[in-house]
Design goal:
200 residues; mainly alpha
Length: 200
């Protein structure tokens, strides 16, 4: 079921959202079958990429992280992804009554999880952390995730398309604010000396 829905959400979003809506599962089941396997992609690829290949700034030598530092960052990264999906699901659940469709938390977390599938999969490109390659594939993945959000919200929340557009826009705004908050917290942590250790 996991791989089937992942492929289908990329190729046939609307019928797949209908199938997901018709299913019944708990949040832990959704995490075990979908979120955790997909959330592992970016941290593992990033761990390998930053310790093996590194990245270049200009024409200089590649910069790599120590294994201990990269492992620590990967574990925090993995935890942040798991928390982010659940928090977005909770926010969708909290906002659903405002838009006239109070849905279960399980359905709201499923909307957040399946919306992020393109972003999960583009994590494979962190195996070779070249900035322009990550942008080249990351921006279309982000755009497709936004499309999935707008396509899936009316179906999963069982509301008219017009109201679904407003709901999806509100969810997108919350996601952007959360992203800015995450970036700000990273800057604060680095200013306190909690940051990566580079190989020499």
């Amino acid at each position: 079921m996991f791989l089937k829905h992942v492929w289908e959400i990329l190729t046939e979003p609307n019928p797949t959202w209908e199938k997901i809506r018709a299913e019944s599962w708990s949040v832990p089941e959704l995490y075990l079958r979908v979120v955790i396997p997909l959330a592992l992609i970016s941290p593992i690829a990033g761990l390998i990429g930053t310790t093996t290949f590194g990245w270049q700034i200009g024409g200089g030598d590649p910069v790599t992280l120590t294994l201990a530092s990269a492992l620590q960052i990967s574990l925090v990264y993995f935890g942040a992804i798991l928390v982010a999906v659940f928090v977005m699901g909770m926010m969708i659940h909290w906002m659903s009554e405002t838009y006239g469709s109070l849905q279960s938390l399980e359905r709201c977390v499923a909307l957040a999880a399946y919306t992020a599938v393109p972003l999960f999969l583009v994590g494979f490109f962190q195996l070779y952390p070249v900035l322009w390659i990550n942008f080249l594939f990351g921006l279309p993945a982000l755009a497709y995730s936004v499309y999935l959000l707008y396509a899936g919200t009316p179906i999963m929340m069982e509301i008219p398309v017009e109201r679904g557009f407003l709901f999806a826009s509100a969810v997108l705004a919350v996601g952007l604010v959360a992203l800015v908050g995450l970036l700000a917290s990273t800057v604060v942590l680095w200013s306190f000396g909690i940051g990566p250790s580079f190989s020499v």
